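Open question from group meeting: does this chain pack into something compact, or does most of it stay loose? Before anyone orders reagents, we agreed to write out a predicted structure and look at it together. Recording both the input and the output here so the notebook holds the full record.
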Amino acid sequence: MISLEHLNKTFGNHQALTDINTTFNAHETTVIVGPSGSGKSTLLRSLNLLERPESGIYHFNDDNIDFAKPLSSKTILNVRRKTGMVFQDYNLFPHLSVVKNVMEGPIQVLNQKPDAAKQTALDLLDKVGLADKADAYPGQLSGGQQQRVAIARSLAMNPEYILLDEPTSALDPELEAGVLRVLLALAKEDDSMIIVTHNMEFARAVADKILFVEDGKILFDGTPSEFFKQPTQRIADFLAAMTFTTISDKAK
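Structure tokens returned:
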């Protein structure tokens, strides 16, 4: 389990995160939503230590990190091995084949033998529907296919949590659907995932828990059923904007 206590993060004079307190349960999918610039990605990146809050406590199972104190390289590496990050822009190695992209981390970081790493990579590519693309190169794939390779690469590291930062934001709707189907299947397998997304229907389908973040603060922390009942006017306005309800109503 991951939990955060009183997390604060600034960028210059901008308060990006303010007194964040929440829990991310294992074997559940937490979806983080909110308007652009609200602090969603900063919160997610803090879990992988790509961002370093200035204060607060980060509990990861039995490990406790106090952000007010310096972090050792060992601590950072330990957290990153447990939290696989999937970015918006794939970050695949263009000079390596698809299967070698998935194999690289397990061989270099986990010290797996190449034959074992390759078999695992092939199994994962099959899982994300890309078994026939193992010998292709990233430049030969669509954006949606590259993102599915990135997901397979993250899974190959056996992370305790998979962190996904708007994984479909750069994709057109058809390619987005393929990636979302993979993530929905992982959620049904009770993988531990934390996802930042702008897709409300996907959030409704995949989430065990939703965080609504605005101005660096958590304004809602609860179940999808509670969230989509629009418990506050701010959430109602946000959902109307995200689903174009207001526009549709005006057009009638």
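Observations to bring back to the group:
Residues 173-188 form the longest helix (16 residues).
Residues 2-251 form a domain with the Rossmann fold fold (CATH 3.40.50.300).
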